[in-house]
UniProtKB/TrEMBL annotation:
PANTHER family xrefs: TYROSINASE, TYROSINASE FAMILY MEMBER
This protein's name: Di-copper centre-containing protein
Domain Tyrosinase copper-binding: 136-153, 280-291
UniProt-listed Gene3D superfamilies: Di-copper center containing domain from catechol oxidase
Keywords, in A-Z order: Metal-binding, Signal
């Protein structure tokens, strides 16, 4: 999705809206925005056929750094990893601990780092919005989102007393029927088949979002526009087809346009907004799934946890020393520090 790419960069970095966003009075009722206000995720979601086709070009070919191994990985291990548990395997108390921590973050003051963020949760949405052009449609996508999700998990623990790990949503088991997951119920995150209307049930009912839509900032409601014909494409076949690709860059591009894009667009509205989709708390469960698929690909060979290939937004090759930044919300790390989730830097794994 190179469409409007340079415009997007200008909007995010050169535009005045992030700097000039003056505090506005919180609306008493979250205003609904028309669907046209939300930019569709990843202009080119790919089909299962595309995912299976080894010749389907999802990224430019480049050399794999076969011998650029991570020297610290042999020595550094984590002995007590956090376990990220799939939603259905999590107890109600485990689910509630996570949801309460997210709500806690939404109730805490913004740091002030992001002028458009109105609470601490929105600091993370604003971070994602600002870096969107850097970390989508290029090979940084998977590795950067791994660190974003980790940053979120770590902030929940540090600032809201959360002692658990991020839950994730096995969308391959609910492909085409997300509405049947208890995630999208009045007990938890609220409904999905809302036709673009505001979420009015569940623990995030009537949430107002101040970051987005797109690179702009207008108060709007947490809304969804569930479409089962789109979430049908988060099935295990498309995940496997992408994970059958041997280079990191090819797999990452396939994942981004595959289950990743279909999950975003299939939940719809806020979630289909490439810039500000973290405004919907299900973003984190979705990206847990995408990161877990990445880890499964990495489990095939040690080299997949110690080498990297692909390029960044401007075509520079990624190396183990390439910096991954969350703009100071957590320390900068090297790609080599976070390639292996079982390193001392991250130290987590998925329950399956
Ligand atoms: Cu993203």
């Amino acid at each position: 999705m190179r469409l409007s790419f340079s415009t997007a960069v200008l909007a995010a970095f050169g535009g005045s809206q992030l700097v000039a966003a003056a505090p506005q009075a919180a609306p008493s009722l979250a205003p609904k925005l028309p669907m046209s206000e939300f930019e569709k995720f990843s202009g080119h979601p790919i089909s299962l056929e595309d995912a299976k086709n080894k010749d389907f070009n999802t990224s430019s070919p480049e050399e794999t750094l076969k011998f650029n191994t991570l020297l610290v990985s042999a020595a550094a291990t984590c002995s007590n990893p956090r376990i990220r548990t799939e939603w259905d395997s999590l107890s109600n108390s485990g689910r509630q601990a996570f949801v309460s921590a997210v709500r806690c973050l939404m109730g805490r003051p913004a740091s002030g780092q992001w002028a458009n963020a109105r609470n601490r949760y929105e600091d993370l949405v604003a971070l994602h919005q600002a870096l969107t052009p850097n970390v989508h449609s290029n090979s940084k996508f998977l590795i950067w989102h791994r660190y974003l999700v980790y940053t979120f998990e770590d902030i929940l623990r540090d600032e809201c007393g959360f002692t658990g790990s991020l839950p994730w949503f096995d969308e391959s088991r609910y492909a085409g029927r997300f509405a049947q997951s208890s995630i999208f119920s009045g007990s938890w995150f609220g409904g999905i088949a809302l036709g673009g209307n505001c979420v009015t049930d569940g623990q995030f009912a009537r949430t107002t979002l101040n970051v987005g839509p797109g690179p702009n900032n207008t108060p709007h409601c947490l809304a969804r526009n569930g479409d089962a014909s789109k979430t049908a494409n988060t099935n295990s076949q498309i995940v496997s087809a992408c994970n059958a690709r041997t280079s990191y860059a090819d797999m990452a591009a396939c994942s981004e346009g595959g289950a990743h894009a279909w999950g975003h667009n299939g939940i719809g509205a806020v979630m289909s907004d490439v810039y500000a989709s973290p405004g919907d708390p299900v973003f984190w469960l979705h990206h847990g799934f995408i990161d877990r698929n990445f880890r499964i690909w990495q489990n095939v060979a040690a080299s997949r946890r110690t080498t990297i290939d692909g390029t960044d937004r401007v075509g520079n090759r990624l190396t183990l020393d390439t910096i991954v930044s969350v703009n100071g919300m957590r320390p900068n790390v090297r790609i080599g520090d976070i390639l292996d989730t079982m390193s001392t830097t991250l130290c987590y794994k998925y329950n399956y």
